[in-house]
UniProtKB/TrEMBL annotation:
The keyword Signal applies. It comes from the Bacteria. Keywords: Signal. It comes from Mucilaginibacter gynuensis. This is DUF4412 domain-containing protein. Residues 1-23 form the signal peptide. Residues 29-199 form the DUF4412 domain. InterPro entries: DUF4412.
Length: 215
């Protein structure tokens, strides 16, 4: 082989590798906006992430609802604030409730495909998803344009081969469709993962009995 040609080809390959690596943006802290479609309707939810913690908030009727948790499932809480009814409840999962959540979580396996498309500005590739517990199959689109810590929305997609952008996941056995609309590297608000002192602390079971919801 011509040595000069080989050197030039190697140089181009290395340059392409560096350019590809530099194109991937890493977020260690920030805010993601997801669109969530469920039988209850379609809403936008903001997810805040930093380190091993994440929180997402949404509006449901007169209620402001926020979910707080750790990425490994060692802590989970639902904060419900209904100003018109003077209700402020913080439902904190007990160890038994956390175990129950884990037992009801899907067990996804992933198979990559050759299909690609751009979704909300992200270059995505399609993977087929199978829940080995139920036998259900789904499609997911993941990207390698960015890296972010796992959050409560993406916790079941750690082995998907990329960051999930358009995907279906399960919450308490119910399938919900999620679309990652945008992401910023903004600093998360101070105290976003804390429970305010003026919230009454209850269990998840207590909240459900009052007509609230859990994860």
């Amino acid at each position: 082989m011509n040595i000069k040609f080989f050197s030039a080809a190697l140089g181009l390959a290395l340059t392409a590798t560096v350019m590809s690596a530099s194109a991937q943006k890493e977020y260690k802290e920030g805010v993601i906006t997801y669109t969530i479609e469920s039988p209850q309707g379609t809403i936008d939810a903001k997810t805040y992430f930093k380190g091993d913690s994440s929180a997402y908030s949404m509006q449901q009727g007169p209620a402001d609802i926020k979910f707080i948790g750790t990425n490994e499932g060692t802590f989970f809480a639902v904060l419900v604030d209904v100003p018109v009814a003077s209700i402020k409840k913080a439902a904190i999962a007990t160890p038994a409730e956390l175990e129950d959540f884990k037992s009801k979580s899907p067990d996804f396996t992933f198979t990559p495909t050759t299909e690609t498309k751009v979704i909300n500005g992200f270059k995505c590739k399609k993977v087929t998803v199978k829940d080995t517990k139920s036998g259900s199959n789904y499609d997911a689109w993941v990207t390698n344009d960015i890296t972010i810590p796992t959050n409560m929305m993406s916790t079941h997609f750690k082995k998907a081969g990329g960051i999930p952008v358009q995907f279906t996941t399960l919450q308490m056995g119910q399938a919900i469709n999620i679309n990652l609309k945008s992401i910023t590297g903004d600093k998360v608000p101070a105290g976003i993962f804390a429970i305010p002192a003026d919230f009454e602390k209850v269990t998840i079971s207590d909240l459900k009995a009052m007509g609230g919801g859990g994860n």
